[in-house]
Every structure is written in structure tokens, then in C-alpha cells.
Amino acid sequence: MGGKPHNSSEFPPFTLTGLPGLETSQHWMFLLLGILYIVSIVGNDLTLFIIKEVQSLHQPMYYFLSLLSINDLGVSFSTLPTVLATFCFHLRKISFDSCMAQMFFIHLFSFMESGILLVMSFDRYVAICNPLRYATVLTDARVVHMGMAVIIRSFCMAFPLPFLLKRLPFCKANVLSHAYCLHPDLIRLPCGDITINNIFGQFIVISNFGLDSALILLSYVLILCSVLAIASREERLKTLNTCVSHMCAVLMFCVPMVGVSMAARYGRHAPQYVHTLLSLIYLFVPPMLNPVIYSIKTKEIQQRLCKILLGNKF
After folding, report:
1. What's 143's domain CATH number?
2. Which domain of life is it from (predicted)?
């Protein structure tokens, strides 16, 4: 497994991994992942199309939902090439630069999803706690600025990752644990000092996911306090119902992320396929379920979707 040390300028290739120990089920796994890809891509495309076509959905909440759908499409297309190659064609080699590019985009869209969920929670906070100021606080210009801030922040966090890895020598077999390139997986491979990589990785986790999660939690505490002040039980339930889709999206993003993190730190003796399955859930389930949840909970999207599926006979 050992080998001659590589300088990063030599661009050593990496070997992708499917499901260790379950090689005979690889085709079935690709069939399952293929279904998830189709649901995710078609579902998010339909969401974007419906929001564009339905005038009543041209408001901040659905602008943010459009950004979330675009982000989910980005996640799907970032992993699709290598997952297709690994599970379907058994092509496991990926060049150094291709791996760095894929890692950048996967983490970029992951950081963006956290930021989008944060601005969506702010939207719900303003809508429930300050409904009379909603239109003046969340203007179209401010929505654009918030979206751009999320994109720029995510880019600034993901951009240094490939360069921090390129400066290191690689001397191991360069076998990855997944069918795609992730930073926590890649920093196990260099022979050099990875202290800076670890510090920067912990910094972006805390400043991005940690801070966003804390602010989302704070927004829902404030929302709950506001809702409890409503006298009517029916009105309380009606108000909380407007947050259900967003709460589900937050849980679908956070729970798998925590599972992957906990498994990496405390489940090192677990079979490798457990780690692989957790990372697949983290990257595949939210893009698939987000459009499903929002189509179920949003009447306008639901009606337009029925019209599309039934050939405008609904």
C-alpha cells in the first residue's frame, strides 16, 4: 500500500471506492442511486419551472426555494459523473485536478445549502414575527443581496481547499472511501503536515454549519415565542404550518450531516460501507426530498404539478 512520495505537481490519480464488501450489489446500488438522481433532477427542475410560471409565487420565500433547488441540482450534477463511472462502468480512477474540482463543487454547494436554509429561516421569522414589515424588509433587492452573500461566503470557504491539498506530498495508495472526492477523506492521504488543513476545516465547519445552525435555532425560538402569544389554537397551528416545509428541509440537511460527522469521529471500527451509506444519504436524500416536501406543502405548486402530470386536465 505504500509508495514513493509524490509531489502535488505530479498530479497523482485517486482511486474511487463503491461499497466495500458489497461488490456484488454495485449494479443494484447504481439502480437505486439512478432513481434518486432522476427524482432529484426532475423534481427540482419542475419546482423552478412552476415558480417561474406561477405569478403568485413571485415572493421572497419562493425566490429562496428557487435558489435551494438550483443548489440541489448542483449537488446532484457534482457527484453524478464519478458515481456513474464507479457503480455502472467500474471506472475507479480519477485525476488529481478532476478530484480537486469535484471536491470544490461538492463542498461549495454544501456550504450554500446551509446558508440558504439560514436565509429561509430569516424569511419565516420576518413573516411570522413582523408580518406588517415583511414587504419592506424583504424587498427584491434585499433578497438578491442575501442570495449573493450566501454564494460569496460559500465560495470563499471552499476556494482554499484544493490549494491547501495541492501543496502537500502524497505517498500512499490514494484510495478514497467514496465514489466522489470529499475533503475529510482526502486529508487522510498526504504524508506531509496537515495541521493547517485540519485547522481550516474545523474553522469552516464552526463558522459555517455551526453558526448557521445556531442562528436557525434562534430564529425558531423567536418564532415559537411569537406563535405562543397567539390566543387562538387554530391560528397557532396555521402559523406553524407555514414553517413545516422549512423545518423538514433543515432536519434533512442537519441529521445526515451530524451522522456523517459522528461516524467519522466515533465509528472508526464500523464497516466501511456504513460510512459510505451515511455519506450517500447526506448527499442524495436532501436534493431528492426537498422538492417533494415543498410540492406537498405548497398548494400552488401542488396544483400546477397536477396540471402538468395530468396534461392540463386537472
Report:
1. 1.20.1070.10
2. Eukaryota
